[in-house]
Amino acid sequence: MALDAETLNKTEFFKRTWEFEDKCEAETDKAIPAMGVKAPQALSTMGRLLAYLDAIASCAWGCPGGDHAIERLIFRACNRARGAVRLLRLGFYDESLMLSRANGEAANLLWLFLKDKTAIADWKAGARRTSSPVEVRKALEKFSDPMLPPVDQERYKLLSGIGAHSDAGFAPAAHNILDIPVSPGEPLEQGIVLCLNEVAHPLSFIAIAALVLVKLPDDIKKAAKQAIVDQFLAVGSFDIKSRADYLAKQREALAKALEESEDTEGT
Ligand SMILES: [Zn+2]
């Protein structure tokens, strides 16, 4: 059906797309509990972890005074994670990954603060070595710690390609085996699990840094540490790094199944 000028002038586009985004949200909420063991756990442990981070960023256990620069950074990361979860529930998977990419930058920056005591002052002064995500990553690579950087070059490049830079090699909104773009609003298990794991990854590192950089009562620290451990354990293996291999294997299996069905039909 061709759209005439009158229809386009109304808010018909939003009305229609919001309808199926809302439907996607309801279907996603229904589907996650049935997506194995890890995906539902990742979501619930993330909620617990975000509750701690939100409270830490809001001085819930005492105000340290000062400029609240670290608290504000944690607050921003917390909000991005909430936004990323919201977007994945609506079927905006690439867009959710873009927010997780930004949280990857926050995770790396916070870990630079842990490793290099002069970095916070440089960050507050706007120094390039702390304002450039590449410089921050390179600085963390120098520590030869297998945990560092929290978001390495490979993960950052993939998240950038799919979520932020519109790389020609990635089809938009194509979280399916055939790599076919699908209008956001269609629940896709692959997109849901991928986005959940990618929200969780930097968030755990952000939370570890938050517990070191913000003074907290011991019992809160202990409970928050447990939430971080639970979050780590709930993250599944399907992520932005394993995605290409997984899809290639799925396509191979599909091609084989089609071949076999054609052989059966021919007999
Ligand atoms: Zn305060």
Strand content: under 5%
Count the beta strands: 0
Topology as a string of helices (H) and strands (E)? HHHHHHHHHHHH
Which regions contain 5 or more consecutive residues with pLDDT less than 50?
A: none
Distance between the termini: 43 Å
Largest sheet: none
As a whole number of angstroms, the C-alpha radius of gyration is 21 Å
Averaged pLDDT? 92
Shape: globular
Bound molecules: zinc ion
Give the % helix: over 70%
What's the number of structural domains? 1
Quaternary structure of the protein: single chain
Tally of alpha and pi helices: 12
Structural category:
mainly alpha
Describe this protein with a few key phrases.
267 residues, mainly alpha, 12 helices, globular, binds zinc ion
General description of the model:
The protein is mainly α and 267 residues long. It has one domain. Helices cover 70% and strands 0% of the residues. It has twelve helices and no strands. It has helices at residues 5-9, 12-31, 38-57, 69-90, 93-115, 119-124, 128-131, 133-141, 153-164, 189-213, 218-234, 243-266. Helix 2 (12-31) packs across helix 4 (69-90) and helix 3 packs parallel to helix 10. The N and C termini lie far apart (43 Å). The model has no long low-confidence stretch (mean pLDDT 92). Bound molecules: zinc ion.
Structure summary:
The chain has 267 residues and is mostly helical. It has helices at 5-9, 12-31, 38-57, 69-90, 93-115, 119-124, 128-131, 133-141, 153-164, 189-213, 218-234, 243-266. The chain starts with a helix and ends with a helix.
